[in-house]
Amino acid sequence: xxxxxxxxxxxxxxxxxxxxxxxxxxxxxxxxxxxxxxxxxxxxxxxxxxxxxxxxxxxxxxxxxxxxxxxxxxxxxxxxxxxxxxxxxxxxxxxxxxxxxxxxxxxxxxxxxxxxxxxxxxxxxxxxxxxxxxxxxxxxxxxxxxxxxxxxxxxxxxxxxxxxxxxxxxxxxxxxxxxxxxxxxxxxxxxxxxxxxxxxxxxxxxxxxxxxxxxxxxxxxxxxxxxxxxxxxxxxxxxxxxxxxxxxxxxxxxxxxxxxxxxxxxxxxxxxxxxxxxxxxxxxxxxxx
Length: 289
Prior knowledge:
This protein is an alpha/beta fold.
């Protein structure tokens, strides 16, 4: 399976949300990393066939998804950042309702609802009202509804926003499992969500695709740009004004700074192995600030 994005651009009035995006995607997890306002959600909505680009096109195995119409929508599952759930419905009733909207027969729907509830770990809560679920459980109901039609392409927008660490780990492990035989597109600004599961990371900034590489290859690109330096308390402000400071750690009567910089920030600075937080700071320092 091959999903191809050709010269896709999208504007809202004078604001250019996407600028000439070109991508080729196959089976596995692809993480779209970017700050708020980078164009992540716009790209996801276009790929989910919820929104049309101003120019360019999206192809599935060589076919334009606009021409494919319902045939394309039948092979995608979509979990938007804010999914509408009927709070008085039980998880089971809500999923059966969504299955009916997707045109799934009643017999098949009941079987599929059982399968997806088991997959997302909600079988024991099938009779629980969605309105009383925790944020993590609601997101799991959201991913369950996206999987009802057994999609070949799963699109999830900021799936772990607002979740506690335990639920975030559960959710990203679930996405990794799901991706064994399908395309999973995940957008996020939380770097820990993608560190271990992404086949490739797509870095989107101000509507432009500026990088597309496996995580380890991206880190190799900044391996000589991450430093630690120990300074006095009154030097912190100076270094923050001159460099991208990621972490500040107090050690006895001194302060250790973790700095991302193209050049050595101090004669006593030590080069460090980069991580994805350093990568995010390297590309999105203005947004972090």
